[in-house]
Amino acid sequence: MIRALVLAAALALAPAASAQFTPADPKATPFLPVADEPLPELFVDPPLAEPLARGAVIIPYRTRHFRILPIFGAGAADVSPRAGHLHVGVDDLPWRWADAGDNESVVVVGLPSGPHKIRIELATPEHRVVAGQTVSFIVP
Questions:
Q1: How many domains does the chain divide into?
Q2: Positive or negative torsion for Cα 57, 102, 125, 62
Q3: What pLDDT, in 10s, does the model give residues 17-62?
Q4: The pLDDT of residue 31
Q5: Global pTM?
Q6: CA dihedral 50, 56, 57, 63 (to 10 degrees)
Q7: Which sign, positive or negative, has the C-alpha torsion 72, 103, 135, 94?
Q8: Higher pLDDT, 123 or 24
Q9: Is residue 80 in some structural domain?
Q10: Is residue 98 in some structural domain?
Q11: 15-24, 110-119, 128-137: least confident range
Q12: Cα dist from 61 to 49, 68, 100, whole Å
């Protein structure tokens, strides 16, 4: 019985594991440190049109060679594969917030009608920015 459960669990996990590990990139596993990690990349899409028409700004983003995790401080700087959080700023205001939730979208509501911009940055656990993009849009 236990052997059957272990085998069923292994088979269920096998597709997920093989999707993350490819022969062309043997470093692509979260279980081993990555030597000479590639630079982190951030891809930010324009706000989704339908929510924006209602005044809700939903900006999808993706990262490559960087995981969004709730880890902070010098002790977390050596995590491999590389991890950190987002810094998000609105309209060049002097404040911003940190997002460590990794839900692949930044959501802002309550902005007044008119032009706006949101800056999304990848930050190390020590808050050093390593990549960033700005998205401009108009709230109707």
A1: 1
A2: negative
A3: 333 333 445 555 667 677 788 899 999 999 999 999 999 999 999 9
A4: 72
A5: 0.75
A6: -80
A7: negative
A8: 123
A9: yes
A10: yes
A11: 15-24
A12: 15, 11, 13
How does pLDDT run across 61-104, given as a tens digit for each residue? 999 999 999 988 887 877 878 899 999 999 999 999 999 998 89
Here the CATH number for the domain that contains residue 120 is 2.60.40.10
Tokens of 47: 């706000």
Cα-atom radius of gyration of the chain, to the nearest Å?
19
Strands lying side by side in the sheet with 105-109: 41-44, 56-64, 105-109
6 within some domain? no
Tokens of 70: 């709730």
Reading the block at residue 111, the tokens are: 């902005």
Domain holding 125, by residue range, is: 39-139
Chain centroid offset of residue 103 CA? 7
Tell me the β-bridge partners of 121. Answer: 87, 132
Structure tokens at 14: 């096998």
Question: At which residue do the structure tokens 């490559």 appear?
Answer: 64
69/86 Cα distance (integer angstroms)? 9
